UniProtKB/TrEMBL annotation:
<keyword id="KW-0238">DNA-binding</keyword>
<dbReference type="InterPro" id="IPR000843">
    <property type="entry name" value="HTH_LacI"/>
</dbReference>
<keyword id="KW-0805">Transcription regulation</keyword>
<dbReference type="GO" id="GO:0003700">
    <property type="term" value="F:DNA-binding transcription factor activity"/>
</dbReference>
<feature type="domain" description="HTH lacI-type">
    <location>
        <begin position="2"/>
        <end position="56"/>
    </location>
</feature>
<protein>
    <submittedName>
        <fullName>LacI family transcriptional regulator</fullName>
    </submittedName>
</protein>
<dbReference type="Pfam" id="PF00356">
    <property type="entry name" value="LacI"/>
</dbReference>
<dbReference type="InterPro" id="IPR010982">
    <property type="entry name" value="Lambda_DNA-bd_dom_sf"/>
</dbReference>
<keyword id="KW-0804">Transcription</keyword>
<dbReference type="GO" id="GO:0000976">
    <property type="term" value="F:transcription cis-regulatory region binding"/>
</dbReference>
<dbReference type="InterPro" id="IPR046335">
    <property type="entry name" value="LacI/GalR-like_sensor"/>
</dbReference>
<dbReference type="Pfam" id="PF13377">
    <property type="entry name" value="Peripla_BP_3"/>
</dbReference>
<dbReference type="InterPro" id="IPR028082">
    <property type="entry name" value="Peripla_BP_I"/>
</dbReference>
């Protein structure tokens, strides 16, 4: 009598993958399902009754946690993930943390209640202890660097990105550069970008300015008056493009022009930054590639028992009209 091990050997996959394919209870592609089903039929293997029925008709679920759906960077990544997972026959559930570690834990718990076969997570701080009890399914971090608990990750080098945009401003003659950011406690990406700024300022022999942290989403009506009077910067780096647009609006309310009075640069490369006049100078982050790589890595780990690994996607500097030479 044929065993599941025989089926897995004929299909050229692991026991776990063969089981998921036959029961439709986990992340496995349709092509793998067909291959395993064919092998089972050729060997006369019958799926045990306890693993058939409702579970075999249940589509695999993949959970995705992001900080915000209003930021086009995350929206684009989620769209790409969903398209990739639909092709592989999986449902996608989306949860938001709103840049709040407490909400983050609740959101993950909600995703886990759906018994997902895998999670793609963008965490506030992946080094912090998640108060999640029990075993976790396969996890791929997106935009976060890997940790001991979550070694599978897809990132861009945010430290290098902060270094690069700061160097660009210094090359244009700027010496007093203010870094405006969302809360570092809620985004390790912003913190690493600021660390890159500090590293470049130190290399150039320049005194860095203390970062101005603002609440995420509090970009409308941003008041920079006091910070401008204290720091007297000639340029401002915002930790993301939406914040950079908020900075430009705040400067205009102060009666200042960009780049005539102050230069402004951001991170992300969202489309609206190309629509304003002048075009925003920014670091373009690979949101499409990030989502596609995270989805493919999760499927590879879940379906093929691939080892968790860290994939780093390159960024690029997009020069615009919001930075001038002084």
């Amino acid at each position: 009598m044929a065993t599941l091990a025989d089926v897995a050997a004929r299909a050229g996959c692991s026991l776990a993958t063969a089981s998921r394919a036959l029961t439709r209870s986990g992340a496995v592609s349709e092509s793998m399902v067909r291959r395993v089903t064919k092998a089972a039929a050729e060997l006369g293997y019958r799926v045990p009754a306890s693993t058939s029925g409702a579970n075999s008709r249940r589509r695999a679920v993949v959970g995705v946690l992001i900080p915000s759906i209003t930021n086009p960077v995350f929206a684009t990544s989620v769209s790409v993930i969903q398209n990739r997972m639909l092709v592989a026959g999986h449902r996608v559930l989306i949860a938001l943390s709103n840049y709040d570690p407490a909400q983050e834990a609740d959101a993950i718990a909600t995703l886990l209640s759906e018994r997902p076969t895998g999670l793609i997570l963008t965490l506030c701080d992946p080094s912090a202890e998640l108060p999640i009890a029990g075993d976790m399914p396969h996890v791929v971090l997106m935009n976060n660097r890997p940790t001991e608990r979550f070694p599978a990750a897809v990132t861009a080098d945010n430290h290098a990105a902060g270094f690069a945009i700061t160097r660009h401003l210094i090359e244009h003659g700027h010496r007093a550069i203010l870094f405006v950011s969302g809360s570092f406690a809620a985004s390790d990406r912003a913190r690493r970008r600021y660390d890159g700024y500090l590293a470049m300022m130190a290399q150039a022999g320049l005194a860095p300015l203390k970062a101005l942290e603002v609440g995420f989403g509090d970009y409308d009506g941003l008041d920079l008056g006091e910070a401008l009077r204290i720091a007297e910067p000639t340029a401002i780096i915002a930790s993301n493009d939406l914040l950079a647009l908020g900075v430009i609006g705040a400067l205009r309310r102060e009666g200042l022009t960009v780049p005539g009075d102050l230069s402004v640069a951001g991170f992300d490369g969202i489309a609206i930054g190309r629509m304003i006049n002048p075009v925003l100078t920014t670091i373009e982050m690979p949101d499409v590639s990030m989502g596609a790589a995270a989805a493919s890595l999760l499927l590879d780990i879940a379906e093929n028992d691939a080892a968790p690994r860290h994939l780093e996607i390159p960024f690029s500097l997009r020069t615009g009209g919001t930075v001038r030479t002084i």
